[in-house]
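A favour, since you know our C-alpha cells better than I do. Go ahead and set the record down below.
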Amino acid sequence: MTVMAARTIVISLCVTSIALAGGAAASAGPKQSGEVIVIDEKPPRPAVEAKAINYSPRKTPPYSDEAILSDAWTRAWLLLDIDARGNVTRFKFLKRPGYQLDDIAARQVFGLRFEPARDRAGRPQRTWIVWGIEWPSYFWLIDRIGVASGMPPIVGFPPRSLAAHVPCKGSGPMNVGSIHPAYRDCSLPDLSRRTFAGLPWLYPRVAR
C-alpha cells in the first residue's frame, strides 16, 4: 500500500489524512516547551471534513542530514487538532519518523492551513484528522527520478506509483536487481483509543 507525502485514508504515496472516527483523548494547557497531557473529549464528527488548502502532495518534505545519510524511507503519522478557522492548534505523534525528522514534521503540520470542517448546518467547527508524512529514500529518488524534491510519480496503466514495486519493510527480500534497492515504510497509524488517548499533545513553540 502506498501513500503520497505530508500529507486524505487517500492511499497513494503522498501524505494521507484520515478522518478519525471515535474516542476521547488527552491534553493540557500549552507550555513553551515540553509535552503535557490533559483529558478532553474529541470534537463532534463533522458533516464535511477539513481539507488542506496550502499543501502539495507532489512535493517531498524537507529531509534531515541523518535521514539523507541513512538513506532512510520512513513515515510519520500525526493526529491534528484543527480549529474552526482551519488552523492546526496542536498534534500528537501516532508514529514518529525517527532520523531527526520530528521537528521537521512539526513544522510541516503547524504550517498547514485547512478549509474548516463544517457541521450539518454548514457552520465551521473544530475537528481532528490523522495526517501522514512520508519521506522516500533520498537516494532512491535521485536514482529513479533525478531529483529529491518530488514524490515518486504516478505512472503506467492502470495508474500506480513508481514506488509501488518497492517492498515494504518486513515483507520479504529486498529487490537487489533494482536500480536502487530499498524497503518502504508502509506503516499505518494505530487508531485504537488505548494507544492515542495517553499520548502527549504538542503545541507550537512560542518565540521569546
Q: What stands out?
A: The first strand starts at residue 17 and ends at 19. Residues 1-39 have pLDDT under 50 and may be disordered.
